[in-house]
Automatic annotation (TrEMBL):
Residues 50-242 form the Phospholipase/carboxylesterase/thioesterase domain. The keyword Signal applies. It comes from Chitinophaga niabensis. It holds the Pfam family Abhydrolase_2. InterPro entries: AB_hydrolase_fold (IPR029058), Plant_Biomass_Hydrol_Est (IPR050955), PLipase/COase/thioEstase (IPR003140). The lineage of its organism: Bacteria, Pseudomonadati, Bacteroidota, Chitinophagia, Chitinophagales. This is Phospholipase/Carboxylesterase. It comes from the Bacteria.
Amino acid sequence: MKYALFFLLYTLSIAGYGQDFKAHTFIRGNDTLPYRLLLPKDYKPGTEYPLIVVMHGAGERGNDNISQLKHGSKLFLNDSLRKAYPAIVIFPQCAKNTSWAVMEFNKDSVGWAGVKFNADIKPTIPSGLLHQLLDSLLASGSVDYRRLYVGGLSMGGMGTFDILARYPTRFAAAFPICGAGNESYAPRFAHSTALWIFHGADDNVVPVKFSRSYHDSLRVAGASVKYTEYPGIGHNSWDNAFAEPDLLAWLFSNKRK
C-alpha cells in the first residue's frame, strides 16, 4: 500500500511539470518507442529549431511514457531559458530489460571488468527506433540539422557515447553524464562533435574511470571537450550537471559546419 501511494504521488509530481511535454509514440513494424516532445514557447511551423535529445537512466525504463521526465526535464521548462534558447526537446523512453547502448558481458569477469561496448553491430531496439525518429524529425522541416544535440545520464550517458560512435557527424554537441563507453571510438567524432562530460568522483554505480578515460582519449584525438568531475558526489551527478548555469549556453554555442 505504501509503495502504491508513493508511486502515485511520484507519477503525479512528474505529470505536473510534464504537461508541456506532449506524449507521442514512434512505431516501426512491431516496435514502439514512447517519447515526450517539448516545442518552443512561441513555436512557428516552418521555422527550423535546434533539437535536443535526452536519454534517461536504467531506473526510468518502461512504457508509461512519463518516468523518463524524472531527471532533467525541469531545466527545459524554465521560462527564461525557453525564451533565450528556443528548441525542440525530446525525452524518449527505453523499454524494460533493454538499453540505449549495446553492452556485451563476459560471464567470466566480475562487474565492469567484463563489459564491452560495441557500436559496430546492430543497435538495440530502442536505440534503433531513436535513430529512425531523428530521421523523421529532420525530414519534418522543423529541425536545424546543424544544431542537433544529445545527452543522457547513466545508461543514457552510455547511449550518448553509442549514438555518437554510430553517427559521428550528426550531432553538434553532446553531454554524457555519469556514463561509460568504448573510448576507442573517440576519433570517429572528435572533430565533429563538441562534448561536455560530467561524473561524480565518488560514483559507486558507474565508475568515474570511464568518463576520465573517454575524456583523455578525446583530447588525444583533438576534440573540443570539457570535463567536470564533482568531488564527493555519487551516481546522481545529473543533479549537478543539469544545474550548471552555462550548460545550455555552451550547448547552443556549437553548430555543425
